[in-house]
Amino acid sequence: MNKMDFGNTFIWGVSTAAYQIEGAWNEDGKGESIWDRFTHTKGILPFRSRIYQNHNGDIACDHYHRYREDLQLMRELHIPNYRFSIAWTRIFPDGTKKSKNQKGIDFYHRLIDCCLENQITPNVTLYHWDLPQALEEQGGWTNRETYQRFLDYVDFVTREYRDKVPRWFIFNEPFVFTTLGYMLGIHAPGKMGLSNYYPSIHHVCLAQGEGGKIAKSNCPDAEIGTTFSCIHVEPKQSNSIFSDLHKSAAIRFDTLFNCLFLETMLGLGYPIDRLPSLKVILDKYFQQDDDKKMQFDADFVGVQNYTREIVEWSLFVPVVWGNIVPAKKRCEKTTEMGWEIYPEGIYHILKKYASYEKVKKIYVTENGAAFRDELEIKDGKVIINDIARIDFIQSYLAQVLRAKREGVPVEGYFIWSFMDNFEWAEGYRPRFGLVYVDYQTQKRYVKNSGYWYKSFLEGNAEF
Ligand code: FCB
User: What global pTM score does this model have?
Assistant: First the structure.
């Protein structure tokens, strides 16, 4: 199999996100985001920090200052598409349009121009989790007002850069930032409980639908879509009386993980038939015409997939009434994130998404793996022979192709990530990059997976 098996309109790229790579957290007028605050605040429990070894994104990969070299390297690797996110706090430091910050606006002009000079197409995510802290102080996504502020931001940014950006992503993984940030407290802003979770879900659904419509009307010739975290879910196998309970727990997990934010956007409403707890949203937070507001006729949907989950029934976990069986308990080998390597999962997810009538086109906007990369010096050259990552990407790609051959309209694939970066609560420990970053010196070293991707993109690598 080689690149041409995917056809010549299939797009290839790499993904990153502002907070994970930029650094320069308080430079040139940038405002504080919830991730700045979260990483700078000690955990409630003295023996456990919120973030692995108290790492933060203050400097990260220093991409804010080094984007020219990074894009040069991307060009040398023949990567034609770069998906990155804009930090809302560089554009509007306090989240509102009256705080407009020209230096931040100029930075993204320079970044986008630099992509274009290197023949790299900019693919822009509008929100990859870094909400302005000033908005969080007024409730963040639990506050309906936040969605209005998001629309102002989307309106401004899509007008500002519309002549140069052909593809926009409204959100990155709404399920993850609402669940980890507003229900479980593992990610910024660290809120917990259903009274935060339900309103944040609803306001994000509104922002997704209305944001999409604004972006489309400002950029009629661009492709507008959004991205979802997708996980193939299976029930725990059992011959006991619990078997049916595990199966229904698996349906609830699948609905929450994979369907909620997609179906509301497609105009199908909240999937209350499969996840009855969501009815609270209708009773408490839903206003007249919200169903229309949540709808958006996206040009594509972005699928992001890394692993699968096995679930079992439980009486103790509200909403889903089930638990995830940790991959470490059931698999011999996992990635550095503790995630199972399960290539067929991406095939099942692609088939599932393609089965929705209104899904027109799918891009895989993130896929990749963290492994413990070892640096070797051979003949004075640094070599990182990350065979496991190459195997991972090849096996997942084979499943993407399988789905495509069966008629799934999948038209693109982006690797997470271009370079190692700040992996949220896991800090800098997991390395996902095609390019190794030495955080002490900020030197970049292309891993063998990066060289493999290059020759694949040149049409030379078969697998
Ligand atoms: C996804 C996120 C991305 C990165 C990868 C590993 O859920 O979108 O920022 O953390 O996981």
Answer: 0.97
